[in-house]
Write a structure and sequence with these properties.
about 575 residues; Rossmann fold; 9-stranded mixed sheet; 16 helices
């Protein structure tokens, strides 16, 4: 007998639909429907070069024909090792149109990482940015790749920028020698013009594999996450419903990278599903954030918490009218309560009548599966589950559901949950588990709780939790206390080794501009912690920093900080 699934969040939905209808077709067909409705709307905006939906589909179709001519068939794997450029988008959907699978990797990955990603996916073709070619070329002969296609960030730039790029940054990039197996993008695309028939649409269904994305998963080492057409299409439709404010023509600042679930799933596929204008660029710099906002006047911003830290720190943005922004989403990492307060206040004082909306998810369910409602916020909450998405809090490493308000492991079920880990059956079975209620649940490895109204509260990554003298210490809770100090901009807490407590907490603190780091201030911060934290949770050390190391997608690199501390011990 199946146990009943509790869904208290449905009473908090308001106008949001609890259930949606999901198409049983490919990602390509999803955006083709959008293009048929809004052919003249701008789909991509690349340095001011605007590509309409009609042009987007034509470019994708041409790329699909070219891939067909070099022998790509249904279920083949093609690696895209690209930053955000139009070519990366064309290639992703062209691969999908053929029923093939896009293997998405970061162009700044190390040589051995790239080789691993190519090997485990058995990629036949590689589409890569020219600036990554030198390191890729050293390992390519030892992989299954037969054809490489080289793209430059200048290929889709407006002419005046292209000329400027060639005479400056472009001069430093050594162009690879071309051959029958190494093509540049423009030559590759020209081959597709020889085909006059449009017979390359494989007409795949929702369950067909669409992409492989890489993540540390729930146990830390890189794993290939296999995602289906349904996973992406469901995410897009759920996200549109949960956001409740996305309209055709709305401009979204798509700066999250295409090889990341957040970037590909929300900033590209969701944007192209609702008929949005995705503003893309190959490299984002916080130093030019103000220029992007003033030039493009985006309606939607989506990024990791460090993006919003940059917004607060940018003196030019501080002078702007931000009334163009109607939706700001933070995801990819948790945002502290105090940072959210600061950002909300900043928006309100700059004519954007919005609150920052925190999302929660994992690459194992593409990206977000829970979001703060548009007009309501419970402090500390990450919001309500998406339509057709179920959340449950269980005792870690069990299927036993805990009471409302009690902490446990967050588990998720729904149409965005991954197919599984690539060639990792044991790890897949450990992460995806069928419970007595009959549903397949994704065990996230994250701690949190649910209140009686269905609002979810994220507390901590299980693997980030510090165990000190047998007590569980939660870094994010300490960070929230430290961040509440009026002189603190942000903080990060990690566990460091201790001779008899096993681990203790260490806090890295960035102060607000013009605040000097002093021993007196350190004492103040520690006193604040003493007042608000249990004795076993107190930071053993506090270190002031000007900045913190970041991962390739802009999250705080906790692992780097831990390695630095380990290095101090071994010296």
């Amino acid at each position: 007998m199946q146990t009943k699934i509790k869904t208290p969040w449905l009473n908090s939905y308001g106008k949001m639909k609890p259930h949606l209808t999901y198409p049983d077709f490919s990602l390509y067909e999803q955006i083709k429907e959008t293009a048929d409705r809004y052919p003249k709307y701008t789909a991509l905006n690349y340095f001011g070069n605007k590509i309409t939906y009609h042009e987007l589909i034509a470019k994708i179709d041409q790329c699909a024909r070219s891939l067909k001519l070099i022998g790509i068939e249904k279920d083949d794997v093609i690696t895209i090792c690209m930053p955000n450029t139009p070519e990366a988008v064309y290639a992703f959907y062209a691969i999908n149109k053929l029923g093939a699978i896009a293997n998405m990797i970061h162009p700044l990955s190390a040589e051995n990482e790239i080789k691993y990603y190519l090997d485990i996916s058995e990629s036949k073709v590689l589409i890569t940015i020219d600036m990554a070619w030198d390191k890729i070329n050293t390992i390519l002969a030892k992989t299954s790749v037969k054809t490489s296609i080289i793209v430059s960030v200048k290929d889709s730039m407006p002419l005046y920028l292209k000329v400027g790029y060639i005479s400056t940054k472009g001069r430093k990039i050594k162009q690879p020698p071309l051959s029958k197996n190494v093509l540049n993008w423009n030559d590759f695309i020209k081959t597709g013009k020889k085909m006059t028939t449009d017979n390359e649409n494989a007409k795949t269904n929702g369950s067909a594999y669409a992409a492989i994305l890489y993540s540390g998963g729930t146990t830390g080492y890189p794993k290939g996450i296999v995602l289906s057409n349904l996973n992406f299409n469901a995410l897009a439709l759920q996200g549109i419903e949960a956001c409740a404010c996305l309209l055709p023509g709305d401009r979204i600042l798509s700066i999250m990278p295409i090889f990341h679930g957040f970037g590909l799933g929300i900033c590209i596929h969701t944007a192209l599903t609702y008929g949005g204008e995705a503003i893309i660029l190959p490299q984002f710099s916080v130093k030019t954030f103000d220029k992007l906002i003033s030039k493009y006047r985006p309606n939607i911003i989506a990024g990791v918490p460090t993006l919003y830290e940059a917004l607060l720190m940018n003196e030019k943005i501080a002078k702007m009218d931000l009334s163009c922004i109607k939706c700001a989403i933070s995801g990819g990492d948790s945002i502290s309560i105090n940072l959210k307060r600061k950002v909300d206040s900043f928006f309100q004082s700059h004519h954007a009548n919005i609150q920052i909306r925190e999302g929660y998810g994992l690459t194992e369910c593409v990206t977000g599966s829970c979001l703060t409602p548009i007009d309501y916020y419970r402090e500390g909450s990450i919001g309500l589950p998406y339509p057709d998405t179920y959340y449950k809090i269980v005792k870690p490493a069990t299927h036993t559901e805990v009471d409302y308000g009690e902490e446990g492991e967050i588990v998720v079920s729904g149409p965005t949950v991954m197919v599984g880990y690539l060639k990792e059956e044991k790890e897949t079975n450990r992460t995806l588990q069928r419970h007595d209620d009959g549903l397949l649940w994704l065990h996230t490895g994250d701690l949190g709780y649910m209140d009686k109204d269905g609002f979810i509260y994220f507390k901590q990554r299980l693997k980030r939790m510090i165990i000190s003298s047998g007590y569980n210490v939660y870094p994010q809770y300490i960070e929230n206390i430290i961040d509440s100090h009026p002189d603190v901009f942000m903080s990060t807490v990690i566990g460091i080794a201790h001779p008899y407590k096993k681990e203790v907490a260490k806090a890295f603190v960035i102060l607000k501009k013009d605040v000097k780091p002093t021993e007196e201030l350190k004492t103040e911060i520690y006193a604040l912690c003493q007042k608000n934290l249990a004795k076993y949770s107190l930071p053993y050390e506090i270190e002031f920093r000007d900045s913190l190391p970041k991962t390739l997608v802009g999250k705080v690199a906790y692992k780097v900080l831990a390695e630095e501390e380990q290095g101090k011990i071994t010296k």
